[in-house]
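User: My instructor asked us to take a sequence, write out its structure as tokens, and then describe one feature of it. I'm not sure where to start. Here is the sequence I was given:
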Amino acid sequence: MGIEQGVAAPPMPPPGSLGAFFWAGAREGRLLIQRCSACGTYIHLPRPVCRACRSFDLAPAEVSGRGTVYSFTETYKAFHPFFVDRVPFLLATVELEEQAGLMLLSNLVGAAEPDIRIGMDVMVDFEVLSPELTIPVFRPATAGGS
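Assistant: Let's start with the prediction itself. The structure tokens for your sequence are:
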């Protein structure tokens, strides 16, 4: 699903930022999280130094995309013109299974607000907002383990 002529472009991540690998991975359909090569700690949002061991040896690592809903809300306010026609939408903090406390803020798709529960199993998916921007979103995991 892309944008149409005359529709506002989505807000873009800053170029050259520490998180550039995250957005490049999303365009490839991969969820990449920064990880310390020295101690193995996952770090999100990306930083120049590991918060656990102070190492500078950090690199992107692909994660499973599986997690649980830590918190969520349904929002009715568009914070940017691109989102005016997309409200209401669900925002969630997802705790990724790779590490306790590894949180990612994202959209929840494929379910209505009354069906969402704290602790609910979710799985990453990717939504193309423009040719330059794909975002990770989460949907309820199926009973089959996907």
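For the description part of your assignment, you could build on this observation: The beta strands are 32-36, 42-43, 58-62, 66-75, 89-96, 103-108, 121-130, 133-140. Try explaining in your own words what that tells you about the chain.
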